[in-house]
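dude i think i finally got it to work??
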Amino acid sequence: MGSNIQPQGSANSNTDLQGDSATAVADVHSFSNANQILVDHISLDLHVSFERRIVSGTVISRIAQRSGGYDGPLILDTMDLNIDRVSVSSIGAHFEPTSFSLDNRDPILGAALRVDLYPDTKFVRIDYSTSPEAEALQWLAPEQTAGKEYPFVYTQSESIYARSWIPLQDSPRVRITYDARIRTPRGMLALMSAESDPKRPRTGEHTFRMTKAIPSYLIALAVGDLDFASLRPRTGIYAEPAFLKASAAEFEDLERIMEVAEKLYGPYRWGRYDALVLPPSFPYGGMENPRLTFLTPTLLAGDKSLVSAVAHELAHSWAGNLVTNATWQDFWLNEGFSVYVERRIVEEVYGPHFAEMECALGFQRLQDELASLAPDDQIMHVDLTGRSPDAGFTDIPYEKGALFLKLLEQTFGRRRFDQFILEYFNHFAFQSITTKEFEGFLLAKLFDSQPELARTIPVTEWLYEPGLPADAPRPTSHVFSEVDRAAQQWMGGALTPQEIGAGSWTTQEWLRFLTGLPDKYGSHRMQRLDDVYHLTQSKNSEIASRWLLMSVRNTYEPAYDRLRCFLTTVGRIKFLKPLYREMAMTIPGKEMALSIYKKARATYHPIAVSCIDEVLGFHRS
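look at this
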């Protein structure tokens, strides 16, 4: 597409491997014109108003480069922002007003903001405020937090929701640095995906600096009553005071996980790695914001059995944050690599048996997902034109992507493939790339060295065709063989619940057992298991959610109170969507689902609300 604009922070590389620069790639989910005008830094000065449920202030965008001869407007992405005024400057001071306009709102993408520039314009200042319904922001009243004293707010910018709290070039192909001043009520702590000091006085003014170029979806903010626990020199945990001790114990292996990842894939390049355990309404398991991973409290199982989610978020420090998908249609480059790296880390830290179980469970989820998706959505490089990028957030980029990388490892050998991945991360460090660019690098750096082996890999089928190729690895676990045998004997009447011997099972073994039972299992059988193992009251969110799903399918009414409690205290979409969808399949179930949802809806993040509204066909009156 012929642009000479290069991503900020790009590593030097050979032209034949580089392909088109990421800014020259068409992103169907952004209005921004980074091909003509590239912003490389933003400065935020924002006030957080819990009373009005808005963030307001200014953002100054620094223009790095204009394509030769282009004299049109700067086009930025917005979503339901109130733009008060726009001004421009050639030196970053003495701003002069300029004209601007907002296009009509697109239901998925928001509205383009067009800013008229002068020939010498280098800085654009925008005074604005967010909507109380901003898609990225969740506002929690004090009673919705653990401490009950302070309110809480946090952002979720992935995929295209940064534009709902900052007007910017909201595309993963554009990488920027940023600094920020955030004003909050005194006594509260503000955190961002940037350098910060956990011991600074809580005066109500907080400053941040991110010196590494990142895509906009990794800009994050959280404000609340938070404390910090240091784990090792480079790692620590933020959480509400009531959760801090349990969080620090659950995630005490963070530094060890980092060391293993560095041994495999090169140095960690982001300085610190801290994690923030958010309130239960957080809609995802984790979000890999650099220097500050967001985590759901549903990972606090008490036995580290769900720590693979943390390994996954850390893996993004290489796969996603360091080397980023240029568009959301290349999302597998983030998630497929992160799942693969996560399981290599887990294997090193917790042993091959743990990793084998995770792989087998992932393969099982992938098979279930493939059975439910239309063929076009089974493609790794999926076409999302005219759709929300969130439509591509299935198990395909995660598990199918990881299987493809596993096949490459098995074909070329682990040692050789590890060298390839290390070279891949170093070569494309701090760049946003396309699937085509990955293909070029794969050909030049791996396939050309062993062409006989390369010919056995149907790359086009893996990347651009639906389903699983015939050569796809089929992960197995010998631990699960024992679990499967116990399930079969229990279903056949050869074992009593006590004789199953599940009292010492891990989370993974329980999930394998429960998912292996028939959908129509029978409430009387569920009662017998519940009497022995107390699954209805399980404090492990993964086990509880699976058990509650079975309860809905089998009308197991003793679990209904727990179901109502679960759906009104947990906001993670992974759990909410299957439960509400299953309830909606019957008339009585849908009535119960709507009754619960009307009470719980206000406690869910806006992204979760959009998802469950669609599942239930809910329209607020």
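The mean pLDDT is 94.
im so relieved honestly
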